[in-house]
Design goal:
By secondary structure, this protein is α/β, with parallel strands linked by helices. Strand 2, helix 1 and strand 3 form a beta-alpha-beta unit.
Length: about 250
Amino acid sequence: MLAESYINYQVNNNIGTIEFFTPHHNSLPSSMLKKLTETIHDASKDDATKVIILKSGGAKTFCAGASFDELLSINTEADGEIFFSGFANVINAMRKSTKLIIGVVQGKAIGGGVGLIAACDYAYATMAADIKLSELAIGIGPFVIGPVVERKIGTTFTYEMSIDANNFRSAEWAREKGLYAAVFEDIDTLLDATNKLAVTLSNYSAEAMKEVKKAFWNNTDHWDTLLYERAAISGRLVLTDFTKETLQAFKNK
């Protein structure tokens, strides 16, 4: 029997931890994207939290991106735009949060999962945390997450990953390109390093961290429009025969 999906938010000594989980490799349906957005907003407004840790449950996959089951159920462009806007909402909530967000990446990240990592202000990972932008292989493209990934690792490497959509890049490659601040041998070491950083930040000035984050996310206000325009593109492409057939083939494997 598969474990149930959840999103948990807990605060301990001014450190707020948000953990999400779904039994299908932590892929995210629209309901989970909505709840994750709300949880990030709540944590941002919580005076008891000075720094946020974002992590996922399980040991093997950080986030496999969009839910294939839900993608297959989309029948109109409007529904497609609404679904992909879910990722836009999460990314915008992360960049607008007044709190620094530390990403904890214990395993592989695909598509939207890479976007979540890039939207963190800082990210640690294990050697198993390989990344892939697989969207083009299923007839879509990394449109919504493209701006935040590009902002983190640059246009050249984002474009490279987008075109070479079937192959993973190693965690070390991701560290070299700036997605991860550091890569650790195992999950225990990863969590220990994350906790040490979070404790340090929790003793800093909340106002100073807020202003630092605001400064480094400068010139992204247009994402309030851009990411939803990109969501509309994905919403249209997900209806093509190519994408429907490819998604069904993946599901049947």
